[in-house]
Amino acid sequence: MSFEIYGPDPTVLDISGRKPHVLIIGAGVAGLALAIMLQKADIPFDIFEKSPEARAVGK
Ligand SMILES: Cc1cc2nc3c(=O)[nH]c(=O)nc-3n(C[C@H](O)[C@H](O)[C@H](O)COP(=O)(O)OP(=O)(O)OC[C@H]3O[C@@H](n4cnc5c(N)ncnc54)[C@H](O)[C@@H]3O)c2cc1C
């Protein structure tokens, strides 16, 4: 499977000379899917999750 990431080019440094760094708010399925894509594209990121524990949805 292949995919493309639209957004900052990870090979381009910003005006501070740093690589882009993505902040993901929420470790739901969308946030985790984005994290996987960013990791494959070698784009650094952090995830912020407000819930202190993992829990199932719909149970
Ligand atoms: C009762 C129920 C049953 C469901 N059953 C199914 C099913 O059987 N099959 C199915 O495909 N889908 C089901 N869904 C839908 C599915 O859960 C959602 O479509 C999916 O979880 C959405 O993913 P998401 O990442 O967008 O959001 P979420 O999964 O809601 O994740 C968002 C995350 O962001 C965190 N967050 C929110 N605000 C902040 C903040 N300010 N700072 C830090 N973190 C924050 C939340 O704690 C959460 O972990 C169900 C939903 C519900 C409510």
UniProtKB/TrEMBL annotation:
Keywords: Membrane, Transmembrane, Transmembrane helix. It holds the Pfam family NAD_binding_8. It comes from the Eukaryota. It comes from Linnemannia gamsii. The chain crosses the membrane at residues 20-38. This is Uncharacterized protein. SUPFAM superfamilies: FAD/NAD(P)-binding domain.
